[in-house]
Amino acid sequence: MKVNLRIPGPTPCPDDVLEAMGHSMINHRGPEFKELSVKITERLKKIFETKNDLLILTTSGTGGLEAAVVNTLSPGDKVLVVSIGYFGDRFAECAQIYGAQVIKLDFPWGTAADPDQIRQALRNNPEIKAVLVTHNETSTGVTNDLEAISGVVKGEFDKLLLVDAVSSIGSIPLPVDEWRCDVVVTGSQKGWMTPPGLAFVSFSEQAWKAYSQSKIPRYYFDMKRAKNYYERGQTPWTPAVSVYYGLDVALDRILAEGMPNIFKRQARMGQMVRDGAKSLGLSIFPREEVASNTVTAVKIPQGVDAKQLLKLMDEQRGVVMAGGQQSLEGKIFRIGHMGYCEYDDIQQVLDGLKATLPKVGFQPSAVGR
Ligand SMILES: *Cc1c(COP(=O)(O)O)cnc(C)c1O
C-alpha cells in the first residue's frame, strides 16, 4: 500500500525530486556547487518576495530559528515572544536559553494572536528590542495575521521582527519586504516538497545592524560567515549537497505552477479538508477564520482514543497523520496538506476517516453539508 504521508513535515516529495538527490557528489567548493547554490538562492528570494540577503543553512527549521536568535540578540536583551502554541513556546525557549529576557505574550492554543495586545505589550515595555512570532502555528493549525502584527511591530514601534515561517512561506502568502519582516525562517521539509536538511533564512538590513551589536556567541550559525562564503559561491561548512539537488528540481516545479496558483490551491485544499471533516460530524480545533491552509487540526470526538484512530488509519488505510503535541495530546489530530499534495490525497484521508471512525466509537454523520 502506498503511504499517504499527511503529517505536517516531513512532507512527501515528487519522484523527480528524490531522483535528483541521487546525483553523485561534487566538490562543494567548486563551480558546479556555486552555480547550483546561486540558482537556488535567487529563486528562493523571488518566492520570499525579498531583496534582503537569503542564506541557506544545513540544519532543520529549528536551527534556522536559533540562527535568528543568536545573530541579532545579546544576553539581557528584552524580547517579546508572541506564542499561540508549541512552536511559539520553542522560539521563546531558544531566546531564553541564550540569555534574552523573554516577555511572553501567550494566547490560548487554537486562537490567533491579537495585534492590540501586542501593541499594549510594546507600549508597556519600551525597552523591547525584538518581537518573535510564529506565522503559522503547526501545533494548533492556526495562521496569525502577520500583516497586522507587522503593522504594529514595524509600523508603529519599528522593532526587530523575527518570524518563524517554517510551515507557511512558499505555501501561504508572506511578502517579506512588503511586511517588513527582518528575519524569516523556513525548512526544506515543509512546503518545499524536499526532504529535511536545509533551512532558508532571510536577513534584512536592520537585522544586519542588530548583528553588528549582537553579543551572543555563535559559530556554526554565524550569518556573516554564511554571507561571506555565499558571495564566493560556497558555504562555511559542508552543505547537504543532495538536498540542494532535490530542492533545485522542487523549485522548478514550484515556479512552473506559479506562486498565485499555489496560494489558491493551498486555500482550496484547506477548505476541502475542513469541509470534509465537518461533513463527517467532526469539529475543526480553531475557529475557521484563523484556520491554517497548510495544516488542519481536528478535535478528537468525545470517547475516541486518538492513538487508536491514528494507528488504524495508518495500518488499514495507509494514511499517516499527526497527533496533538503537549497539552493537545489526545485532544486533536492533525492533517498536513502543504507542499506536494493533491486533492485525491485529501479525499483518501476523508474516505479513510469515514471508514475508520466507527471502529473507534464515533459514528460519522452526514450533517452539515
Ligand atoms: C516544523 C516546524 C518547526 C521546527 O522545524 P524542525 O525542522 O523540526 O526543526 C518550527 N516551527 C514551525 C512552525 C514548524 O512547523
SSE topology sketch:
Layout: E1 4-5, H1 15-20, H2 31-48, E2 53-58, H3 61-70, E3 78-83, H4 86-97, E4 101-106, H5 115-124, E5 130-134, E6 136-137, E7 142-143, H6 146-156, E8 160-164, E9 183-187, E10 198-203, H7 205-213, H8 223-231, H9 241-257, H10 259-279, E11 295-299, H11 306-317, E12 319-320, E13 322-323, E14 332-336, H12 343-356
Parallel strand pairs: 1-12, 3-4, 3-5, 5-8, 8-9
Antiparallel strand pairs: 2-10, 6-7, 9-10, 11-14, 13-14
Helix pairs in contact: 2-9, 5-6, 10-12, 11-12
The structure holds pyridoxal-5'-phosphate.
Helix content: 40-55%
Principal-axis shape equals globular
Count the beta strands.
14
Question: How far apart lie the N and C ends?
Answer: 31 Å
Structural class: alpha/beta
The string of secondary-structure elements, in order, is EHHEHEHEHEEEHEEEHHHHEHEEEH
Profile the largest sheet.
Answer: 7 strands, mixed
Write out the distinct hetero groups bound to the structure. pyridoxal-5'-phosphate
How do the strands line up in the largest sheet?
2-10-9-8-5-3-4
Question: In terms of per-residue confidence, which ranges show pLDDT below 50 for 5 or more consecutive residues?
Answer: none
Provide the β-strand percentage band. Answer: 15-25%
Radius of gyration: 21 Å
Number of helices: 12
Mean of pLDDT: 97
